[in-house]
C-alpha cells in the first residue's frame, strides 16, 4: 500500500495533503514553510515529513480524504483493524473526521483513539519541506519497484504486480502536480506499460526487464530534477530516509497481527522502503562519518539490525521482530539523525 506525506517526526519538513473540503479564502503562510487554509489550525501541521503523513507532535496529520493507503496504514496499525485503510478510502469523501464513525468505518471508541491523528484540512508544502515530500514520494516509488523486481526474479508476477501498481495508481497521482511544476517528462504511461506486462503474467522476461529498467530510469530522472547539492546534503537526505522508514514502520505494523504476518503486501512494501532508505544512507555515510563518526556508527548499526527483519521478499513463517522492536529501531535512527539535522550548539 501507499502513502501521502508528513513531516519527519524529528525533521524540519512539514506535512502535506490537499483536502477535498476546500476553502475559498486565500491561504496564509506559516513560519513552518507550509501554507494552510484559513481556519486550519497551525497545530494541524505535523512536525514531520512527506507523503506519508503522520502525527508526531501535531494534530491532524493524516488527511482522510487524500492520504495514500500507506499513510492510512498508520491508523490501521494503531487500531489493529485489518483492511482499515481500504475501508477509509472506500468511504470518501468526508465532510468532517467524525464521519469515520457515522459512516460505520470505525467505532466511536476507536475514533477516540485516533481523532488527534486525522484531519480533512488543507496543508500545502513549500520550500525545503516540499522538496523532501517530493523526494520521499519518489523513494516510495523506488521501494515498490525494488521489491517488485525481487518478486519478478523469483517468478512471482502475481505478487510483484501490486508493487508496480501502487506507483501508478496512487503515488503518481499524488505527485503529478509537482512533476508538472518541475517540468519532468510524464512517465505514467511507462509505469502502466510495465504494469500491463506483469498483469499479463510477465510472459516475456526480457521485455519485462527492459520495461522495468525504463521505469526505474524514469523515477531516477525525476529525482535528479532536484539540485545535486540538495540530493547530496546529509541534512536533506536524512529527512527523506526518516520519511521512508516511518512509512515502512506503519506498513509493517499493518502487516503483523496476532504475532503473524497476515498482510503480505504490507510486509513487502516495508521491505522495499527500508532497502531504499539504506541505499540513500550509504550515499551520505562518508559525509556523516567525517563530521559525526559516532552518529554514523549508530545509524549503520540500527539500519543493519532493522533490515534483518526482512530476510527475503517472501514473508517468513513468523515475524523476525515484533512491531515494537521495529518501531524502536526506526525511532533510534530518527533520534540519531537529529544530531546531524540539529547539531548541538
Structure characterization notes:
A hairpin with a 4-residue loop joins strand 2 (28-29) and strand 3. This protein has helices at 69-79, 84-90, 99-102, 108-114, 127-153, 157-181, 188-199, 205-223, 228-231, 234-255, 264-291, 293-307, 323-341, and strands at 5-6, 28-29, 34-36, 49-51, 62-63, 118-119, 123-125, 256-257, 260-261. It has a domain at 5-125. It has 345 residues and is mostly helical. It is built from 13 helices and 9 strands. The longest helix is centred in the last third of the chain and has 28 residues, at 264-291. The radius of gyration is 19 Å and the shape is globular. The strands form 4 sheets. It has a 3-stranded antiparallel β-sheet. Strands 1-4 form a two-stranded antiparallel ribbon. 58% of the residues lie in helices and 6% in strands.
Question: Briefly, what is this?
Answer:
The protein is 58% helix and 6% strand. It has 345 residues and is mainly alpha-helical. The strands form four sheets. A three-stranded antiparallel sheet has the order 2-3-7. Strands 1-4 form a two-stranded antiparallel ribbon.
- Sheet with most strands: strand arrangement: 2-3-7
Cα(first) to Cα(last) distance is: 40 Å
Rg from Cα = 19 Å
Sheet-strand content, in percent, reads 5-15%
Specify the number of helices: 13
Helical fraction = 55-70%
The shape is globular
Structural class: mainly alpha
Count of β-strands: 9
Overall pLDDT score: 84
Given as residue ranges, the uncertain stretches (5+ residues, pLDDT < 50) are 1-60
Main β-sheet description: 3 strands, antiparallel
Order of helices and strands: EEEEEHHHHEEHHHHHHEEHHH
Amino acid at each position: 500500500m501507499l502513502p501521502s506525506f508528513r513531516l519527519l517526526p524529528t525533521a524540519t519538513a512539514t506535512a502535506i495533503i490537499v483536502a477535498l473540503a476546500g476553502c475559498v479564502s486565500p491561504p496564509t503562510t506559516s513560519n513552518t514553510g507550509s501554507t494552510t487554509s484559513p481556519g486550519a489550525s497551525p497545530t494541524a501541521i505535523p512536525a514531520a515529513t512527506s507523503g506519508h503523513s503522520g502525527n508526531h507532535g501535531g494534530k491532524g496529520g493524516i488527511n482522510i480524504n487524500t492520504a495514500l493507503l500507506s499513510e492510512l496504514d498508520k491508523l490501521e496499525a494503531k487500531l489493529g483493524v485489518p483492511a482499515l485503510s481500504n475501508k477509509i478510502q472506500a468511504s470518501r469523501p468526508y465532510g468532517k473526521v467524525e464521519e469515520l464513525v457515522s459512516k460505520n468505518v470505525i467505532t466511536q471508541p476507536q475514533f477516540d483513539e485516533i481523532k488527534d491523528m486525522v484531519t480533512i484540512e488543507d496543508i500545502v508544502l513549500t520550500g525545503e519541506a516540499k522538496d523532501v515530500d517530493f523526494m520521499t514520494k519518489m523513494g516510495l516509488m523506488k521501494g515498490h519497484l525494488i521489491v517488485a523486481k525481487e518478486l519478478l526474479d523469483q517468478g512471482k508476477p502475481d505478487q510483484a504486480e501490486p508493487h508496480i501498481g501502487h506507483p501508478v495508481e496512487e503515488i503518481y497521482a499524488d505527485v503529478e502536480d509537482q512533476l508538472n511544476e518541475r517540468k519532468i517528462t510524464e512517465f505514467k504511461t511507462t509505469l502502466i506499460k510495465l504494469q500491463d506486462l506483469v498483469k499479463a503474467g510477465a510472459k516475456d522476461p526480457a521485455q519485462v526487464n527492459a520495461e522495468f529498467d525504463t521505469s526505474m530510469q524514469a523515477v531516477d530522472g525525476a529525482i535528479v530534477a532536484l539540485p545535486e547539492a540538495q540530493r547530496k546534503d546529509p541534512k536533506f537526505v536524512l529527512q527523506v530516509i526518516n520519511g521512508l522508514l516511518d512509512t515502512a514502520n506503519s506498513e509493517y505494523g499493518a502487516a503483523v497481527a496476532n504475532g503473524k504476518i497476515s498482510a503480505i503486501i504490507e510486509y513487502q512494501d516495508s521491505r522495499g522502503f527500508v532497502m531504499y532508505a539504506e541505499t540513500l544512507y550509504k550515499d551520505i555515510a562518508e559525509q556523516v562519518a567525517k563530521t559525526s563518526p559516532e552518529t554514523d556508527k549508530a545509524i549503520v548499526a540500527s539500519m543493519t539490525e532493522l533490515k534483518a527483519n526482512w530476510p527475503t521478499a517472501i514473508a517468513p513463517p513468523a515475524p523476525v521482530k515484533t512491531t515494537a522492536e521495529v518501531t524502536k529501531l526506526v525511532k533510534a535512527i530518527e533520534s540519531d539523525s537529529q544530531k546531524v539535522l540539529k547539531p548541538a550548539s
